[in-house]
Amino acid sequence: MKLSISKHELNEAIQQVAKAASSRPTIPILGGIKIEVTHQGVTLTASDTDISIQSFIPVERDNLVIAHVDKPGNVVLPAKFFVEIVKKLPSDNVEIEVGAHFQTLIRSGSTDIQMVGLDPEEFPVLPSIEQNELFQMPGDLLKAMIRQTVLAASVNEQTPILTGVLWSLQDKQLKFVATDRHRLASRVAQAETAMEYRFNNVVIAAKTLVELSKLVPDQHGLVDIVVADNQVLFKIGNVLFYTRILDGTYPDTSKIIPSMFKTELVLDTKNLTDAIDRAYLMSREEKTNIVRLTTLDNGVIEISSSSTEVGRVTEQLDAKQFDGEPLRIAFNSKYMLDVLKVIDSEQIFIGFTGAMSPIVIRPTDHSYNTYVILPYRTTN
Amino acid sequence: MKLSISKHELNEAIQQVAKAASSRPTIPILGGIKIEVTHQGVTLTASDTDISIQSFIPVERDNLVIAHVDKPGNVVLPAKFFVEIVKKLPSDNVEIEVGAHFQTLIRSGSTDIQMVGLDPEEFPVLPSIEQNELFQMPGDLLKAMIRQTVLAASVNEQTPILTGVLWSLQDKQLKFVATDRHRLASRVAQAETAMEYRFNNVVIAAKTLVELSKLVPDQHGLVDIVVADNQVLFKIGNVLFYTRILDGTYPDTSKIIPSMFKTELVLDTKNLTDAIDRAYLMSREEKTNIVRLTTLDNGVIEISSSSTEVGRVTEQLDAKQFDGEPLRIAFNSKYMLDVLKVIDSEQIFIGFTGAMSPIVIRPTDHSYNTYVILPYRTTN
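^ inputs. structure came back:
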């Protein structure tokens, strides 16, 4: 293998795939980036057991030469050093040449680097996915759906299925649900696909979705998504992102969301966020994060929290709307803040069915998001 | 005590003093901020065993009312919560009122906070320092002196005196020296003071100087410095910063800096920094950080490092000047990078007296800085 390539383009592709290289590989090859060079271009691949990312650099783009290939070939280079050094090479042109035993020479300006390469035959083979059926989502919408649901996924590895986000597709409607048994987040959106295409119980690790999100540009361009037996493939421009589907059956959450309420509030999102943020600071001192919401007269809402050692915070807010019974309820302020930070609506609806029943939070502008928080049982 | 005060001014003063409040106080009072209110203004003080910081907010500045004092008085409030909450108060006006048992009420907009206050009589008394003799340094110069020396202070608490920077003043010349026995940094500058004012063996903890540095504006305005028996006081505008002087005698370092060299190099600072930075990436793989410098023919310098598992980096640089004997020497690349990052000169001088002798690094533009790095003894 022998080629010269633009440092900028090589670096960009390395940054895209590097996240999938294992930082503590069980065998050295899993801590590597595979480089495949053909006369069409350069393909970089990294893969740990959970995700694989591949990025393709064409030899030419918009009539600009990006890479000049003298001799096709393959090699695997240790990711950690390779990722760091390419960023810092002195010239915009990088020459890479692979010799006997995958010994690799990298030249740029007056810098000469010899790297111990590994045999590409030992590199994991990417899952082969039949691409008959797929659906498409605008990149910015997919990112919003991820951001608005991952917060409720469990971080406890003891119930692995709850560390994921449940995806389902029916009647062109894509739905994400996440829950850690204390709270739930769900989001629906229209997908671009055939009416009859549907799936269920596709669960993808929340942390994988966060990584995926970073690779998706903040634009309206479409991302292709292919769901296979135990893998999902995302195509984002020249980048392919593979993730495995989590094993197990996701619990049925459809019955825990109340639809009738005894108390209904509409509040200004920013005012509520600021008030709970201040109450959170006090609740944090007690390490419980407990904040109380109490309805007062004349549509006034009181938010309060206290700590024996530090003191007490009391906030008053005017409700935009207040229907139903008076209420006094306690909940985890951190959970409420997580929801308020990702809701994209100037006002929010909160529905209660009693001090011991799930609290439902929704934007008032649209009905794509639903959040549920279980209240705390407290003695006073 | 009862007053109303601008949130912005209160917050700024809190941020200045908060660093001195102990984050893990042995007794609660040391984790507090003392607030003293008189008809002249509000004084905030925080103090752990090493440093004390005091900031004064006048009731009026430039004919603008900052605080309105109804009733003078003192209280100590727990720093951690107080620091966070003031930032987040809803209105620019904050009312503070202290009642029985130091119970403190803070009001801003529709937010009410009750805080458990502590008895100000229990708060540590600041050292009383006679201010007969002092010297002055421009703020930006003081910051530069700190930045250019703290890097060589020891981080090993087993030899406490070496975790400090040695200050001495003689003939209006202020000198800073730091060393961890593997490297040394020194910096001199002119101080504004009486010719006969002098001191020696004043050692201040490097981490304290870094904190001080953050409080000094990046401007030419003068900082007053008073050296007392076991304390140093810095006056930066309305802020007073007290630090204790480290106990013990600083080792004599005057004899370890060679003044005659067998090999002398002048190199471009940026080119050398970049080359060593790349070699450092490889040396880091071996956890030794060893980099070699070898003189080649025609004034060319080779920088190289290697790792059995990853490979080898070789860099070539043209020396701007090269006098004396050929040389092959190994040193800690991290130490060299620390020096190169703070040297403010386009070209640098490096002097060698042999492969086992201290390496001396100096800017070429001026002679205020001297750096010394001990080489590694290596077998090949």
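The mean pLDDT of chain A is 95. Helices of chain A lie at 7-18, 79-87, 139-147, 206-215, 269-285, 333-342.
thumbs up if we can close this ticket
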